[in-house]
Write a structure and sequence with these properties.
binds guanosine-5'-triphosphate; diguanylate cyclase; Rev_trsase/Diguanyl_cyclase; 14 helices; five-stranded antiparallel β-sheet; Beta-Lactamase; GTP-binding
């Protein structure tokens, strides 16, 4: 009898204690039915929402939230109820009876009846107004930023992802967090495995440029660590750089076209004088450095003014194009360069060619042009011909040249021009070298 009374007293004591715990605490304890209507509430609700427990019964949590917030939370809570799972840390804004806003952190566990059917939830709400407002703001920023963000854990699960990331994944977007990245974008998983390995060894993670469904992304992972500094996941940023890359490609092609214009003669397609002057400086510098000879051939169409005057300017242009084609199809080395140097004047740079070799090339070119048998009434041959002046920077002689490059270049061109003048003077349709001023081939009248 005595023991029985003791047990009874204990029971009373526990019940009083439990009552105190439930109603006189900082957390609000509640139960809802399967439709989310409160079926039981501790007194703490008065403190949190400014209404007594009896006014809460029959209502749902969404009845205490501002409309936009109710919609947002309903969305998150809908997924939880569908899966009939426990949840925690669900942050939500509520409107108190006096109109003020209180931010609550809600956690709960599902309750099942004897048939295993969901009969409701039991849980607690905690007032986190100070911290909560900041958390919600950060969540909003995370959710609505146009940059795609996600967090991948070590098993490849997509633990978190924002709206932009869901859009990026499109119909690949996971409906449950259990979906693994390996299944979503299998090709990228090896990159993240590498990032995990680098993060483990405290190395910097590189940014990567990868394509996914016709878009181009700049992807950067940052390790997420636990309290013991272990890597538990990767926070990944996906910046869509498709437009930037497209603009860069357009710019590169435009630059290519501009460069083509800047370096080429539009009539013949050959390199122009501006390019060739620069090229000549580079070739002379190379010849000086490696101590090899370099020659230039300056070619000029004979009696071209007359050709123009009799055949017309258009035919003159065609003739210039024909000469350009013939010069480029001559058997030159790949390092040789042909340009239109002036109106009807062409320059050929022959790196590595000594005077004899250059004379040979020039003679071949002269011969090619006369072999075209292009009628030209003013020419003594009756056909189109060219005259060529050849000048060479001799191997060995260069070493002692101490002039600036541009002076060596202009001196070389000047000597070729003087030789060309001599060729014209001696009857045209011939090649003359700057050294001796003698024609290598006489014109054939
Ligand atoms: N059709 C055409 N003619 C051009 C072009 N550039 C220069 N010319 C012509 O080339 C001719 C060059 O004439 P001249 O410098 O007097 O020389 P030439 O008549 O060839 O006489 P020699 O060089 O002494 O044999 C001029 O009539 C220019 O108008 C061009 O792009 N197209």
């Amino acid at each position: 009898m005595n023991n029985e009374k003791k047990r009874h007293d204990h029971h009373d004591e526990d019940a009083r204690h439990l009552f105190e715990l439930l109603h006189n605490n900082s957390d609000w304890v509640w139960e809802v039915d399967a439709q989310g209507r409160y079926t039981w509430s501790s007194d703490v609700v008065t403190e949190l929402l400014g209404v007594p427990p009896e006014e809460v019964i029959g209502k749902t949590p969404f009845d205490f939230m501002p409309p936009g917030e109710a919609e947002r939370v309903a969305c998150a809570f809908g997924a939880i109820v569908t899966e009939k799972r426990a949840f925690s840390g669900l942050v939500n804004r509520n409107q108190r009876a006096d109109g003020s806003i209180v931010v609550l952190e809600t956690s709960g566990i599902p309750l099942f009846d004897e048939h295993g059917e969901l009969r409701g939830y039991r849980g607690i709400d905690r007032n986190i107004s100070n911290l909560g407002e900041r958390v919600l703001q950060l969540e909003t920023i995370y959710e609505t930023t146009p940059v795609a963000l996600c967090m991948i854990d070590r098993e490849g699960r997509l633990v978190m992802f924002n709206k932009a990331m869901a859009k990026l994944l499109g119909d690949n977007a996971p409906l449950e967090t259990e979906r693994r990245f390996q299944q979503l974008i299998p090709d990228y998983w090896p990159f993240f495995l590498t990032d995990f390995a680098l993060a483990e060894s405290n190395e910097e993670l590189p940014s990567r440029e990868l394509g996914w469904r016709d878009r181009c992304y700049d992807i950067q992972s940052v390790p997420v660590r636990d309290a013991m500094d272990g890597v538990i996941g990767l926070s990944v940023t996906w910046v869509d750089i498709t437009e930037r890359r497209q603009a860069e490609h357009k710019l590169a092609s435009a630059n290519k076209v501009l460069q083509q214009y800047a370096q080429h003669d539009h009539l013949t397609g050959l390199f122009n004088r501006r390019y060739m002057d620069e090229r000549l400086l580079n070739e002379i510098a190379r010849a000086l450095q490696d101590d090899f000879p370099l020659s230039v051939c300056l070619a000029d169409i004979d009696y071209f003014k007359h050709y123009n005057d009799t055949q017309g300017h258009q035919a003159g242009d065609d003739c210039l194009r024909l000469v350009a084609r013939t010069l480029t199809s001559a058997r030159l080395r790949s390092s040789d360069n042909v340009s239109r140097y002036g109106g009807e004047e062409f320059l050929i740079i022959l790196p590595g060619a000594n005077l004899a070799q250059a004379m040979n090339v020039a003679e071949g070119v002269r011969n090619d042009i006369s072999a075209l048998k292009r009628p030209h009434s003013a020419s003594p041959t009756g056909f189109l011909t060219i005259s060529i002046g050849v000048a060479t920077l001799q191997h060995g002689q260069l070493r002692f040249e101490e002039k600036p490059l541009h002076m060596i270049a202009s001196g070389l061109i000047h000597r070729a021009d003087t030789a060309l003048y001599a060729a014209k003077k001696q009857g045209r349709n011939q090649v003359v070298s700057a050294r001796d001023g003698h024609a290598s081939t006489e014109s054939t009248p």
